[in-house]
Each structure stands twice: as structure tokens, then as C-alpha cells.
Amino acid sequence: MAINVNTVYQRVLRIANKEQRGYITPNEFNQIALIAQMDIFEQYFHDLSKYSRMSSAQENYADPTYMIYEKLQPFEVSVDYQPTYSASGSFGEFGIPEDCYRLSNVYIRKVDATGPGGLAFNQLHKLIPCDRVSSRELNLIRNGHPLLQPHANRPVYTRHGNEIYVYVQNEEGTTAAPNASYDASQFDNRTVSRTTDVNIDFYRKPATPIWGSLITNGVALYNVGNSTSFELHDSEFVNLINRILTLAGIMIKDPSLHNVMAQEEIKNIQQEKA
Questions:
Q1: Which SS3 state, helix, strand or coil, does residue 10 take?
Q2: Which of 36, 94, 115, 225 has a CA-to-CA distance to 13 between 20 and 30 Å?
């Protein structure tokens, strides 16, 4: 899934020349390209929110939702973390990756171990979803009835900026970090539980599109080696060009240009498949 950055730039230049709007420099194009790509990417989430509010009985909204998820699939990321723990073991902390656009899920990885003493156990790893709570809700939970406090099967987390704090309850009934230290002597013939790392699902940001060049005889020539194409679905080609042109302040006076671009893109896709 990618739209060639040079193909887009050359198409934009041709339309700009046809409209006699002047020359768009590579630096100007790169700045506009980033904004245009993010506009399209962010629109996916706005559309999903819109369709989710509509009745599931309206089957005509099923296909658009499916298509949006298909476009977002390459951006789905799942990562394991070993949090940093507080001295008291009351919580585990870790930072969200810089390329995270939207956090989807937070899990703790619970380990159920059975067997005699020592560490030779049959272990079963389970991903337990964490509920997000506000700082106020967390305080109410932790100061409330013991049965309402977080535990290994009902962990919670808070988010402060790019930091995530995960809370669970250990065997003794106190709030503990996801993989807080434990006493190996606790592992006797009974079944015990402890948690290890944390797993998160998120949508990453698209890579920044760059039309890279080499200067030859004072002319900027396309260089694939230092270029980055658009991380967008092929079906967004015409939409992408239109957004770039709009951001560049170019008003397409001839409506037929939209049809021409669409027809050319269909032809290119057919040629690629052939």
C-alpha cells in the first residue's frame, strides 16, 4: 500500500502548469504533502465515528466501514512492554511510542502457574484487557471498597500525556504493578497468578512523504534513494491530488480535470495488474 510520491508531484505540476498557477517547489510540495496525507488519514477516524453512531440495521453503511478498516490495517501495531515500577510497586509506567496516533487497547499479560515449589511451572499466558479510567475515578476506586479495586482479572490504566500507568491487585489484596516482585515461596501446590509485561494496540502515524532530489546542473532531479512515498491506499490517489492542489491554493476551473485524473488512475491500475 503506497502511492508513489514522484507520480503525485509530477501530476500536480502538470495541473498547476495547465492552470498557469506557477511552479511548486519540492520543499513546498513536501510541506503540503504531509498535511494532505494527515488530512486523509484523520478523516478515516472521523468517518468511523460517524458510521458507528448510525444504526447497525442500515446495511448500506457496512461496506464503507469495512473499506475504512481495510485502509487502516497497515497502521495497526501491537507492542509488548516491560513497565518501570514505582518503589512501592503500586503501579507500572511506560511511555507511548512517538509514532502512536491513536491508542486502541491496553492489556496485561497474566501468567497462571501451577505445580510444586520453585519456578518449574506450566505457564499459560493470557492477555487481560485494561479499562481506562480518569485520575479521579482511580482515586475513587483505590479508596473505595476492596471488591471494587483493580485486580489481575480487572486491571485499569490511566493516561497522562504520553505516559501510561497500569494498576492491578496482587494476591494479598493490595494494588501492585503488572509484574511487581513476588516471593517464589508462594508457589506451592495451589494455583497462583501473577502478571508480567504489558501489551498495547495502537494505530501508528503514516510515514512523512518526501520528494527527494539530487541537484544536477542546478536542477532538482527526483532521487528514489532519499524519497518516501505516501502511505495511503491506492484508491486515495485522486483525493490526494485534489487536497494537495487545494492546499496549494489552486482552484481547478475545469471540472473535467477530475474525471481525467480518475480515468488515468484507473488506466494505471489496470496496467499494473496486467
A1: helix
A2: 225
